[in-house]
Amino acid sequence: MLLAVDVGNSQTVAGLFSGEELLHDWRVSTIRRTTVDELAASHDNILQLRGGSLTEVDHVVVASVVPELTVAYQALADRYLDRPAVVVGPGVRTGMPLLVDNPHEVGADRIANAVAAHALHGGPCVVVDFGTATTLDVVSETGEFLGGVIAPGVDSGLDALSQRAARLMRVELATPPAAIGRNTVESMQSGLVLGAAAMVDGMVSRVAVELGAQPVVVATGGLAGLVIPHSVLVEEHEPMLTLEGLRIVHERTAGAPARGRRR
To answer: Which of 34, 63, 81, 199 could tie 108 with a disulfide, CB 3.0–4.6 Å?
Structure first.
């Protein structure tokens, strides 16, 4: 059994794989000061609710943007599984060349997303991840990571508006009835939700011009389901894309053939 963990700034998504099959997945809040034992207890308790246990896990693969928790998951694997975790980063065999100025700057989750999107849908492709930031990552036809776009996330934009504009409140992130808001709530929802979809479509169009080809656009992330119905260019929705990418990276690192659900 493989435990794949994607540690984000706001939330951590984990999944248990048996071979290529994702048996269970769950999402918890990211708490930077969580101890190794607390991490182990949290994942074990959730697995027991699903009829499993942490003791069934043979391997751990981690993508983390939180350095403290990267170290904690490495310690978890050493202490409870008696084997090292695979941490996506420099020196790990991902099978994807990073054609950027500084490969060390590319987040591990972005690499995992790109690996999975190319394995599942081929290239060229663009991965749109709706998380704390909204990121667009571009992969060539032959599977090279070319770079991307980082923009404020939908929820982050809402936080900024409600905290920095005295007369704007925090509103529910929902689809407004129309692009032209008839009140403050609808106007904010329009800008946040429809604006995010328009930004993605606009940036993908620019990327397509630079690539000289129309890429497959794959969406993932916690808010993808809210935004992508209003996008013209997003074609695929893969909620567990990062976990799938982590599984593939782990297999490539272990030397096993990594197959994707290419469509």
So the answer is: 63
